[in-house]
Amino acid sequence: MLPIIHWNLISLEVLMTIILVMLVLLDIFLPKDVRDDWIGTLSFIFLFGLILFWIDQRDIRGVTFNKMFVMDSLAWFFKGFFLVVMVFIFAMTRQYFKSLGQRRNEFYLLLWLALIGLCFIASSADFLLMFIAIEILTISLYVLTAYLKSDKLSIEAGMKYLILGSLASGFFLYGMSLLYGVTRSTGFEMIQSFVNTHAMTPLSLFAVVLIFAAVAFKIAAVPFHMWVPDVYQGAPTPVTALLSVGSKAAGFLILIRLFFGIFAGWHPQWSLVLAILSAITMTYGNLVAIYQTNIKRLLGYSSIAHAGFLLMGASAGSMLGAAAINFYLLGYLFTNLAAFLVIVLFSAETHRDEIEDYAGLSKRSGILAFSLLLSLVSLAGIPPLAGFFGKFTLLMAVVNRGYIWLALVAAVNIVISLYYYLMIVKRIYVDLPINASPIAVSLSMRLILGIAIFGIVTIGIFQGPFLDAALTAVKGMYLFHL
Amino acid sequence: MIKNMPSFCFYLFAALLILASLSVILARNPLYNVLALVVAIFSLSSLFVLLEAFFVGIVLLLVYAGAVLVLFLFVVMCLELQSISLSSAQQGRLRLLGILAGVLFSSSFFWAIQSFIKANTLGASSIRGTIETIGKILFTDYLLPFELTSFLLLIAIFGIVSLAQGALSTGKEELPS
Fold this sequence. Notes:
The complex is a heterodimer of chains A (482) and B (177). Chain A is an all-alpha fold and 482 residues long. Chain A has 19 helices and two strands. Chain A has helices at 11-29, 32-56, 73-100, 105-123, 127-145, 152-183, 188-197, 202-219, 228-234, 237-262, 267-289, 295-316, 319-350, 361-364, 366-380, 386-401, 404-429, 443-461, 463-475; strands at residues 62-64, 69-71. A two-stranded antiparallel sheet of chain A has the order 1-2. Chain A starts with 10 loop residues before the first helix and ends in a 7-residue tail after the last helix. The interface between A and B is large, with 45 and 37 residues.
């Protein structure tokens, strides 16, 4: 018998699919010289339309498709998150490919597919659906990473990401099938009721560890971080931005769904492991970042370090911890995307990504220098910007849990990260430029940069509503259990 | 004899599977590796048939032995990889580490499975692995994941179009050879 389908729950994804089909048709029928611009502009308009639709959906909650597809507060929160991320990514793509002079129509279509994958990850309440949603995201990212096929670094990055990503998918699938063998279900509700009534056995531990390994690959936590530096450096910059914000957020979303939801009954067994992993991850990321000379590579290691910070929230295993993850990701979105926007705009003019080229940026373009300054300082966690309050809530969560040592490790790491972030700031503002030609920034890009800066400052100063939103997202989560 | 037929078949195919898998990793000639993999897949699918999971058995044969491995064979034969000896990568510390990790992983996994079988309270699954049951489940309970796989195919098409077609841009850059 067919399950009853509540279409209003899944309407956002259906709309996205319709948009995708429309864009594919336009791609076929539009003349070649206007095609790329049209698809880019239309994508932008549709994204804003979808954001309006998403706001309209704020009260729609429920489960459908045989309890596989869930629209809860967490899914709603993250769908909005992904839509905003995509607005920035589309803006970057336009700018990035304009300077390269390459065709970009498939790039847009693949970005839409990645967005669909992200939204389905946010809504999946079944391991099978979750796996396919993750694959939709990851496989489109493989293609996007290798998109610049005349660039050897891009191809190398795509190849590395494909091989290691397939390994991670294998882990996920293996863990998922073992879990099915233990619980006889792929649905989250059934698995949760099994977890709550049964003790952890060696086989279920095996399954959980394998699934966690796959998620750790997504969020780039040590020891599953090996792909990060090369892929971040080689991929087209908009894709790097998507990997560092969208893909990472998706990983943490899965982490929250699994470890604050269905596996929460086995909480004592994994809390300490997560805490240790968190400490190792942030220390590794920050120490290696010091030696980087390429800014995309540096942000790669910095994103490993941030994965470590975010894991603190997961190890806390409390409602505050999960809310802190959500809140931190909100700040991280604007902060990191502002940094990547500057990188895109800078390399559009200079075609270089080395840190030494950023010398004297303040004399070449005031707005780029200021945006990069704000985002780096916010990444380092200096008040009153978004990064500071995010780190503060995460620290609060682990201290409440009793991991004082972890809070100390994090504090030391914040100091280490300050060093390399401020080294770039020194280069921008103190050093003399090698080439003093000014860098022009168009009005539309100024506007996008302005939005990002506005986000960084607003979240830093008026934390209240954002923290509320992060907390509500966790509280109303389907199968939330602590 | 007839009564013991299933378990006889099980041991036969299991032994074949182990032998074939060993020769996949031990044979020096890539061509033999691939052919051994075909045998391994065949015995694996026979095991699934013995478990009455007919659909999985057939899919294994069709997809892996039929499509993927033929592709492997083509690649191996077209690239003439026979001349490349794999022995250098198999030597030294890497080999020792590999064996250690393999033994550690498989023994702990074996232990986990053992303890699970001893404590299993759920009993055997009642689902038959025929094409009919799988078709029914796929189009009712698992409708959404099934439909979503179409996105995967779409990505594959876009990926091929964008990665495999001729020069992307003005045509002055060349593919790295």
